[in-house]
Specification:
Length: 258
């Protein structure tokens, strides 16, 4: 697929030529959120490469094209996922892109420049790391599970749901990890021995969600992405037993704040 080959090359170039140079400017875009000059430069570079070959395609990206609807051909771009990690010297951050066409994601690519790891997935072909197919460990028991929870938001109700959910599930699992980067957390589900990843928001941004969720679905992991009582949650689990247990707890905690 021409689109797939072009974006794999572009995302690696963005990582090596822009991302790895670091950031010189940090700009606030909310009381508890910011972006760097590298976010903008990576996004600009990737959009320019896409438009060079596919000028009629639409772009949905975090910094400059964040209102585009998912219809027709759309490229979904997160130029730096884990910006707070990136700006503070942590290596758990990356670039991620998904391509949407005919009402579904056709492929996605996640690049972790600090580790030179390129994860790629075309629908029906599994997930590959630097070109080699990844084999996933199956049937991790709940009691031995490491559970990833997305960074706690400053939205009070969502924070309360997340904290209550952690308290609910902690007694049944091994431990909890908060990485602070969605693409790394999705990748951990595919390439590490994690039991589940839990993301709860009032609305989950498509650029945060779709590249990694698509890879997890194509890896035949158990997933649930739903809107419930005014909140959106995404759960990826190693198996259905873990998924069902965590989903019950998430929905219970959502009900308690309504």
């Amino acid at each position: 697929m021409k689109e797939f080959e072009i974006i794999k090359k572009a995302i690696k170039n963005a990582g090596k030529k822009i991302f790895l140079k670091g950031s010189k400017e940090i700009n606030l875009k909310g009381e508890y959120d910011y972006f760097t000059n590298t976010d903008l430069n990576c996004e600009k570079y990737l959009i320019s490469k896409i438009k060079k070959y596919f000028p009629e395609d639409e772009i949905l990206s975090e910094e400059t094209c964040n209102t585009t609807k998912l219809q027709n051909r759309v490229w979904i771009i997160d130029p730096i996922d884990g910006t707070h990690n990136y700006a503070n010297g942590l290596k758990e951050c990356g670039i991620q892109i998904a391509f949407f066409d005919k009402n579904e994601v056709k492929f996605s690519v996640i690049y972790l420049p600090y580790y030179n790891e390129l994860y790629s997935c075309v629908k029906g072909d599994g997930v590959r790391l630097n070109g080699r197919e990844i084999k996933i460990m199956r049937d991790i028991p709940l009691g031995r599970s490491l559970i990833e929870m997305c960074t706690l938001t400053h939205e009070e109700k969502v924070k309360k749901i997340s904290l209550n959910c952690l308290n609910e599930i902690h007694k049944k699992i091994l431990e909890v990890r908060i990485v602070g980067c969605g693409c790394c957390e999705f990748i951990n589900m595919i390439n590490k021995n994690f039991g589940a990843y839990v993301l709860i928001r009032q609305e989950i941004c498509k650029w945060d969600l779709l590249p990694g969720l698509f890879m997890c679905q194509e890896s035949n992991l158990s997933t649930s992405n739903k809107i419930y009582k005014g909140f959106e949650y995404c759960i990826v689990a190693n198996n259905k037993t873990i998924l069902n247990y965590i989903e019950r707890k998430v929905r219970k905690c959502i009900l308690e704040v309504n």
